[in-house]
Design a protein that fits this description.
Blueprint lengths: L16 H12 L2 H4 L11 E7 L4 E8 L7 E2 L4 E8 L1 E6 L7 E6 L3 E4 L5 E4 L5 E9 L4 E7 L5 E7 L12
Antiparallel strand pairs: 1-2, 2-9, 3-10, 4-7, 4-9, 5-6, 5-8, 10-11
């Protein structure tokens, strides 16, 4: 059962990207399953876990203007995101060039594989709400920063730590 008392299906294996897209699409259509986890906080992005088992975890993320994850990966987990309110900007890291930016507005669903490095941020006024599903469940994530010498540096963090832009040590 979710915190809102709405049952989610337990899976017997890790999910592929198509199955993850289906999970977030179906949840997006059921606000009774996630609305109680929405917390709008101008100071920091709020993330609340809706579901976790051995093959899937699902999060509800509340975004306000200026919230920014910084560039990160999801270690061994692939994922899918449904935007249910507002809009978020996704920037996919490109070596030797500017990041590829995609704005995802309410109703959008997108996915990514485990090797994907991206940044998510809310760069407009108002709030945004998104639902994120990962399989296998998140345990670690990598955060990225550019060192003073131009080298890319990765730091590993727990899934429970807040993602935010990081500065690299020299």
């Amino acid at each position: 059962m979710t915190p809102a008392g709405v049952p989610l299906q337990a899976f017997e294996r890790d999910l592929d990207r198509d199955a993850l897209r289906l999970v977030v699409t179906e949840l997006a259509a059921r606000p009774d399953a996630w609305r109680a986890l929405v917390t709008l906080d101008a100071e920091r992005r709020r993330f609340e876990q809706l579901w976790r088992d051995e093959h899937l975890d699902v999060w509800v993320i509340s975004w306000m203007a200026g919230h920014d994850t910084g560039f990160h990966d999801h270690d061994v987990s692939q994922g899918a995101v449904a935007v249910v309110a507002g809009a978020i900007l996704e920037e996919r890291l490109v070596l030797g060039g500017a990041p590829v930016a995609r704005r995802h507005a309410a109703g959008a669903v997108f996915d990514f594989d485990a090797s994907h490095v991206h940044r998510m941020r809310q760069d407009s006024s108002g709030a945004a709400i998104s639902i994120h599903a990962y399989s296998p469940p998140l345990w670690r994530m990598g955060t990225y920063a550019v060192g003073a010498d131009g080298s890319l540096r990765r730091s590993s963090i727990s899934y429970a730590e807040e993602l935010r832009p990081v500065d690299a040590a020299a």
